Request: fold
Amino acid sequence: MIVDGVFSTSFRIAAQVLLNIQPASRVSLPPPKPGQTYMLYTHIPFCESLCPYCSFNRFLLDEASARSYFVSLREEMRQVARAGYSFETLYIGGGTPTVMLDELVQTIDLARELFPIREVSCETNPNHLDQRLIDVLDGRVQRLSVGVQSFDDELLKKINRYERFGSGEAILNRLRSVAGCFDSLNVDMIFNFPGQDEAAIRRDIAMVIASGANQTTFYPLMTSPSVQRSLAATVGQVEYRREAELYHLIVEELTREFDLSTAWTFSRKGNHLIDEYIVESDEYVGIGSGSFSFLQGALYVNTFSLETYRRMVASGHAPITGKRRFSKIDQMRYRFMMDLFGLRLDKRAWKARFGRSIEQSLPLEMAFFQASGAFAENTAEAITLTPHGRYLLVVMMREFFSGINRIRDQARQAMLTVEPAELKRLQPYSQAKA
Reply:
């Protein structure tokens, strides 16, 4: 546990350095590379209520503001198409993307007109699981991911979800009503909430299994300063002393019915569909206020201000207000984390990509993981992980996403507003240089 704590702290510091985003203007996405496969992420930042554990860019739903936003979102999608990008997969996150189904449908339909989209993943909340959603999204969405977080009524009340989304039993019944209606039904869960004990986790696991969902994701609680403050006021102080114990319990119980797809994603035996675009996609374009793009070794951050977003898109400019270019070693560390999080690092693919072996690329990281007993297999072809190694990857991903959440905190505080006079100096979306 001491080693895990030191590792967690060390990686938290490294993530803060890695994710030090700098304000940017006169920036656009780089042109697409021939032969490169991209995924399109689309952010819908509206919710009917705000949860205290969430750091994503989100606002309470206002119909007029939301409709105006969807118009801008679709225009940004057209700008990305004019810049030469093409996508076969679309991931729609939030917020709650299904708060306005008519606008969502127009957005999905436009994406299919502009790009050869073959698969759409969309997030939603339990209260939207009804026949209308099934009818509207049939044929449009192949993967539906439902934010449940917990089936525990007392915890749902503390995190402001019980009144809006109903009891754990009501949520379970809603999940059962849509099971089998989509190629993939994923249930998003969170573990290690303050006060969450082993008995509560076991109940959550039993209800996930009973839901009929063919995939579930058990995320560790990921915090930022704002999340820690809001949780302290509603649930309690965040701590990590039982995280490893709870994680190993989840794996032990769930793998009786499910297979591990990533370090925290579980698929029903015979199913292997992962609703995590950053795992399956080397590079992706994000559109919408508060979205991120990762392209050619750089992270681009769209403005978190809805008004700035509207004005920049209307003026034909990329709504990017932050950027961080990663060094080659940073890119290798990122790929190392993502490959192992996906449970297998292909050494030959690594060498083809980076021009050197993994041992030559990251000798210190390899030595640490080897010494800590993280590798179940380390051959000339591949690396796989032991149970302890999988937990180390959970820690790395938790701290990486917590670093992303800190970026969101900073962006919300600054709102990085671009003034009208500056807008006139910005170049059009297709002409600006990265």
